Amino acid sequence: MHVTADLHIHSTASDGDLTPGALVELAAAKGLAAISLTDHDTLSGARTALEFARRHSVRIIPGIEISAEYERGMLHILGYFPSFPEGLEDALAQVQEARRNRLPRIIAKLNSLGIMIAEADVIRIAGDAQIGRPHIAKALLKKGYVRTFDEAFLEYLGKGKRAYVEKEKMTWQKAVSLIGRHGGLPVLAHPSTLGLTDTGLKDFIGELSGAGLAGIEVHYPDHSREHITLYDRIARESGLVITGGTDFHGPGRNEVSPGDHGIDSDLLRIFSHRLGMPGIC
Predict the structure, then answer these.
(1) Of the candidates 234, 233, 243, which has an alpha carbon nearest to the alpha carbon of residue 76?
(2) What pLDDT is stored for residue 8 in this prediction?
């Protein structure tokens, strides 16, 4: 597949390493027709990218990634919008506040383990971004408590690890509805992280579709060929759009670059038509 659009990218507005402007330049250098910044719980990076993209041939699709309540695995809902969705950022205020409240609780756990980092250390790294565990991982790395970024999650910050704190999340019903109410397409991100059997996944996607789900992220770095075949079939049988992307966070993370995964021109044409942004290709 010749990828023309990468619809899952993170910037410094959340936990990515590159600014929105740098991502636009990188996408242009890669020859991509379109990208979507899908930062966690914020649209601030998408607004900056839209302004920067005027100097380049890359189309920017405003996007977001929202974490939803789910016991068995990890459930994220991607939202894509034909234009900047005014008012959505305000609607996410409670989720953003939950991110801020999580930081001191994680720091307290780390301190109890003899790891002397402070909230200020993390805030200096995060800057104006939505603070997340990757910023804490960078603080641990900078202070020499871990040797690699991944080690911070394996030892302390990953789910179930010694300094992990569960984040307050919205229900998936609310996440899907919120995106739809603001004129967007709600898409199930990386379904392989749900921890469901094939039959269970199909049933759950049926529930999501009934609530307004519009698509499935089929093409993704961690999806095997078998995954892609299954998710593609479910999407087509359910009348859902097919999306894809790298979940790029920065050079050296996830071992991917923008455009390594995503959708081709045919899938982009279908996606842009459903989104109400014809002519992206």
Answers:
(1) 243
(2) 98
- The answer to whether the predicted template modeling score (pTM) of the entire model surpasses 0.85 is yes
Low-confidence ranges of the chain (pLDDT < 50): none
Task: Give me Rg for the CA atoms of the chain.
Answer: 18
Report pLDDT digits (tens) over 18-57. 999 999 999 999 999 999 999 998 998 988 898 888 888 8
The interaxial angle of helices 119-126 and 93-112, nearest 10 deg, is 130
CATH of domain 93-157: 1.10.150.650
Closest CA to 110 of 156, 178, 41: 156
Q: Round to whole Å and give the CA distance between 233 and 218.
A: 10
State the Cα–Cα distance between residues 45 and 24, nearest whole angstrom: 11
- What is the per-residue pLDDT across 59-96, written as a single tens digit (0 to 9) for each? 999 999 999 988 877 899 999 999 999 899 888 887 87
Backbone CA torsion sign across 53, 29, 191, 267: positive
**Opening angle at CA 39, ends 7 and 222, nearest 5:** 55
**How far, CA to CA in Å, does 2 sit from each of 89, 241, 263?**
34, 18, 8
Pick among 3.20.20.140, 3.50.50.60, 3.40.50.2300, 3.60.40.10: CATH of 5-86+172-275: 3.20.20.140
Inter-residue contact 53 to 44 (CB < 8 Å): no
Q: Domain extents for the chain?
A: 5-86+172-275, 93-157
